[in-house]
Amino acid sequence: MATLFSDLAWDTGEIERGGTRHPLHLAPRFALELAPDTILAPHLYGYAEPRRWNERGFKRHRNRAEMYTVQERPDFVLYVSRSEGQRRYLETELAPALPPEVSLFVLEPVERRAQRLDAAGTVRTELSLAEVPATLDALLKTRLFANADFDFLCAPWGHPTFQSGLYDADPARVARIEAHPIRLWEAILLRGHWERWELVRGEVPLVAVLPTAAAAAATLGQWMQDAVRWTGHDPDPQMAWIHVGPFRFRQTGTQVDARLRLSAADIRVAFMPRAELPGAEDLPSLLGVLCAGNEGAKVEMLNGYAWSTADCELPGEAGRVAERCVEEIRRLGARQVDLEEHLGDFPEGADLRWVVERRDRYVTVFLPLGYEHSMFWDVFSRRWRHLETERVPLRTFQPDAGPAAATELEARCAAAFAQGCREVWVAFRDRGVVEVRRPGQPPEVRLPNDLLSLDGVTSAPVPARALLYSHGGLLCSDP
């Protein structure tokens, strides 16, 4: 039996197999520690030999009872790529950082294909999505994926991907993003591709996707200014990147990339690895605290603040880290920085006041994001573009069960057609078919292997199976 670590399914990190759950084969999203300076967060990875990291009992050094990383090297790692920028990162940075015995699979749902890359980032094997299960089973020497299906990735949350022309840009919001680019310390909250922190050969990838090239250029300029003030180093162009101290930056169209090189001490508090580099017991900086994230490993805002907490486990370290953070924040030009001991309530305020809290061995930095002209959430959530569902000439329905389901479905289809909808795709999971409905015509039944598309609307054909099994789970057979 194989062990799989999954982020393809729901936040539980479990893979759904035939409607039942098998936690003995699965685990939550532990980061994968391939080396002290390379800690990844793949969508899926697994071992031919069984692992049971989801069962408590493992103890890290310094008497830590919780587990933060998995150190054993897996037989494969798998990433889902939906953009050119993600693909470039996997080919040029992540693939060369993997040990040769770890296979890298890249799934591209829009093209309905998968590729196995070698250490140079070149394609070693070309696969269709349908061939991925058997390939993984051969690698793991098991039948865990015997009846698995990755087609649900083609229709995230039950909806096909639409052509970009159907999305409307908000000119006023775009103008504000161009005029008020987010700051470098806010960029750390953006994290890398797939909205997660990873460490690749000592560097943390940070990625911002902007609405226009002008917004990207303004953001790049702001980040470099902030980096100069933060580090005291001048910009140093080298090849495609501009280096400023531990940072390096580049712009590619509407995307801005940054790479942040962390010290060994910052890696310790940010990623909490099992193995540590020389110098890990030095004093961490603001960079390490910001990369640690909040307790939910998410980016959230309360009372106008986002926050990040670092576990400073060395004796007397928390106080010194808090004081260093205050010094660095002042150097960034903050109007006010408050150092608090055991802050009672969550800080409030819509101004630019920062708050640093020391609580026992923990240090929390509260970043102000609710200030005037703050565009962080607009960039983070890409709010400059939106899709008016009522204007899209295609709807997808997944009818509920029950005596009134048929009547309700007919009413929903009639309402969609009245709004000008050209087609309605109805996924009947109990029957395993998708009906394509058009105004005034009888429904057309499509089987799971059939491809669905609508000219001028969908960006690529979608397997009917993707709509039937689009609830976020990866359907697998019992091993």
Structural class: alpha+beta
Total domains = 4
In what range is the share of β-strand residues? Answer: 25-35%
Structure summary, number of beta strands: 28
> Cα distance, first to last residue?
7 Å
Q: Choose one word for the global shape.
A: globular
Sequence stretches where pLDDT stays below 50 over 5 or more residues: 9-28, 53-65, 470-479
Helix content: 10-25%
Mean pLDDT comes to: 85
What's the tally of helices?
11
Spatial order of the strands forming the largest sheet: 1-6-8-9-10-11
Largest sheet: 6 strands, mixed
Radius of gyration, CA atoms, in whole angstroms: 24 Å
Q: What topology does this entry show?
A:
Layout: E1 3-6, E2 16-17, E3 20-21, E4 31-35, E5 38-40, E6 44-47, E7 69-70, E8 76-80, H1 84-97, E9 103-108, E10 113-117, E11 123-128, H2 132-140, E12 168-169, H3 171-179, H4 184-190, E13 203-209, H5 213-231, E14 236-238, E15 241-244, E16 247-252, E17 255-261, H6 264-271, H7 286-292, E18 305-311, H8 317-331, E19 336-341, E20 353-359, E21 362-368, H9 376-380, E22 385-386, E23 394-397, H10 405-418, E24 423-428, E25 433-437, E26 444-446, E27 451-452, E28 462-463, H11 464-468
Parallel strand pairs: 4-7, 8-9, 19-20, 23-24
Antiparallel strand pairs: 1-6, 2-3, 4-5, 6-8, 9-10, 10-11, 12-22, 13-17, 14-15, 15-16, 16-17, 18-21, 20-21, 24-25, 25-26, 27-28
Helix pairs in contact: 3-5, 6-7
